[in-house]
Write a structure and sequence with these properties.
The complex is a heterodimer. Chain A is of the alpha+beta class. In chain A, about 20% of the residues lie in helices and about 35% in strands. Chain A contains 3 helices and 10 strands, in the order βββαββββαβββα. Chain B is of the alpha/beta class. Chain B is built from 8 helices and 27 strands. In chain B, strands 1, 2, 5, 6, 7, 8 and 19 form a 7-stranded mixed sheet that branches. In chain B, strands 10-17-11-12-13 form a 5-stranded parallel sheet. The chains are: A alpha+beta, B alpha/beta. The interface between A and B is large, with 36 and 39 residues.
């Protein structure tokens, strides 16, 4: 597998050879961090997903959210699609769960911004 | 007229850290003026993660990073005004602002400029063609999507591969748009490798290096663009044109420090960074006016904005208490051999308590170079670097002891060497 390393701006092209699900050879990495990254990226690539959902009853229109932990890369677009059209009621605090076990990843989506309810709008903007 | 010790223009990451720095240094009478309806500035629309690795030793999203600083400012009981737009700053540090209560005049002992930066617009890059709906600066589109809740289009081309453009390519993909290509004039991307992999490669979005948009098509609405390969002089090569249909073109073609207020106050600006020329205290050419964050020079990591701004706050506090005399000249800092700029522009060693950070950027991609520091014609030190790129700000630290080795130095030069 060909991997572009993200550990530093060099962006080494690393070639990882797998046999029976195990790494048997790594070529092209110029540092230890790069080798580790390439190994992980080949065996179980993971990504954080960040997006927004509609916020109801708040002076803010959108609530930013994230996966609590990185999820398998193959599930990223499933999660993005599942979030389209989701609505959340204010108030919300950072860390509140917005969607549990999103797309059966075992990972929750959580709020990354505080959002007050509209009744306290003046407080929110003053 | 209201009197304060320090007025801070802008409540984004720079303004918040500057306020905390000033408060820590013992100044109570501070006010932050913010034109938006919330603190945190641009961080609120930067919903992706990767912020805070240096400051908090963990990866936060933009809004989370902003919330932490907002919390600290509230705990420190630092006063701030939202929905308040500064109209003018004078050389004698009178600040005029406007909000729903009317005009506000403040006389300050010191002013900290923390207004951030703006995006380069279409007009700055002279793309020929029509002016249909559907062409936006990438950061503006980011605000539409992440704050206002509007997705600006369904088929997208991004011009410029800075981090905002890359992040928006992924963001638009998540919102159901098809991102056809990211087109970059230079033979390299100005964005982080991580963003190229995780925002483009992951979604099969092509990055067209050494290409540019040569034609805008459409009537009311954008219907497509023509792109072409460019030669080594960055001129389009005839015969390499390619049409791409799209309803949206996002421009990620650079950021410019926001300094209209500084200009009105008669503050000297650098024609390289676009920000004020500052000394070791981050003090501008006007005594008692300090600058930090993206107003001073465009940063790529908010962590460095916070560190720099906290220092600006401390320096302003010392200035107010008469403990930081304005330097008489100082050592001039200059750059050569691929170093495009360095901040600050001059250093008075008398105002360096134990060390000082110098931030700089290079003008091209360089591999296997030394970053060398000269005091007059003598090389003080050099560090080997595997790679330096224009997209990544570099930091170099000089210690008090190093200045003491060269008490008669007139100039410091930072250079790249093979």
């Amino acid at each position: 597998m060909e991997i572009t390393c993200i550990a530093c701006p060099l962006g080494c092209a690393i070639k990882v050879t797998l046999e029976g699900g195990k790494v048997v050879d790594i070529q092209g990495a110029t540092c230890k961090r790069g080798e580790e990254y390439a190994k992980l990226e080949c065996l179980s690539p993971k990504r954080m997903v960040t997006s927004t959902v509609t916020l109801i009853g708040s002076p803010l229109r959108r609530l930013p959210i994230k996966t609590e932990h990185p999820i398998p890369k193959s599930k990223v677009m499933d999660v993005a699609r599942a979030l389209l059209g989701v609505e959340i009621n204010a108030p919300v605090s950072i860390g509140d769960i917005v969607a549990e076990n999103i797309c059966d990843t075992g990972v929750n989506m959580v709020a990354t911004r505080h959002a007050l309810a509209i009744s306290t709008k003046n407080e929110a903007i003053n | 007229m209201k009197k304060v010790d320090i007025v801070i223009i802008g409540g984004g990451p720079a303004g918040l850290a500057a306020a905390l720095g000033a408060k820590d240094a013992g100044i109570e009478n501070i006010i932050i003026l913010e034109r938006e309806q919330y603190l945190g500035g641009i961080l609120n629309q930067c919903i992706h993660n990767g912020f805070g690795l240096h400051v908090f030793k963990e990866e936060l999203t933009g809004p989370e990073y902003a919330a932490r600083y907002e919390e600290r400012v509230k705990q420190a009981k630092i006063p701030y005004l939202l929905n308040t737009m500064v109209l003018d700053i004078t050389r004698d540090k009178k600040v005029m602002a406007v909000n729903r209560d009317g005009l506000l005049e403040i006389k300050a002992e010191a002013v900290i400029l923390a207004m951030g930066c703006r995006e380069r617009p279409r007009g700055a890059i002279n793309i020929p063609g029509r002016r249909p709906v559907g062409i936006y600066a990438a950061g503006t589109a980011q605000k539409f999507v992440n704050i206002d809740g509007f997705v600006p289009g369904k088929e997208v081309v991004v011009l410029g591969s800075g981090d905002i453009g890359l992040i928006m390519a992924r963001r638009m993909t998540f919102e159901g748009a098809a991102v056809k290509a990211v087109v970059e004039l230079m033979p390299y991307s100005g964005g982080l490798k991580r963003n190229i992999v995780q925002c483009l490669d992951d979604f099969g979005i092509p990055l067209k290096l050494s290409h540019t948009v040569t034609q805008i098509k459409g009537g009311e609405r954008l219907t497509g663009v023509t792109i072409a390969r460019v030669d080594e002089n960055l001129k389009p090569i005839p015969g390499t044109e390619e049409d791409i249909s799209c309803d949206t073109l996002l421009l990620s073609v650079g950021l410019i420090p926001d300094n209209e207020l500084s200009r009105n106050a008669g503050i000297a600006l650098s024609n390289i960074t676009g920000g004020p020329v500052v000394d070791e205290s981050l003090q501008t050419s006007v005594e008692g006016i300090f600058a930090c964050g993206n107003t001073l020079h465009v940063h790529d990591l908010v962590d460095f904005v916070s560190a720099e701004s906290e220092q600006a706050g401390k320096n302003a506090a010392e200035y107010v208490r008469g403990k930081r005399p304005r330097p008489d000249g100082g050592i001039t800092l200059s750059t050569k051999g691929g170093v495009r700029y360095a901040v600050p522009a001059s250093i008075d060693p008398g105002n360096v308590s134990d060390k000082i950070d110098i931030r700089f950027r290079v003008s091209n991609v360089f591999k296997n170079r030394y970053v060398a520091v000269y005091f007059d014609d003598t090389r003080l030190k050099r560090h080997r670097r595997l790679i330096l790129t224009p997209g990544e700000m570099e930091t170099l630290t000089l210690t008090k002891a190093e200045f003491e080795k060269y008490p008669d130095a007139r100039s410091i030069t930072i250079a790249l060497e093979e």
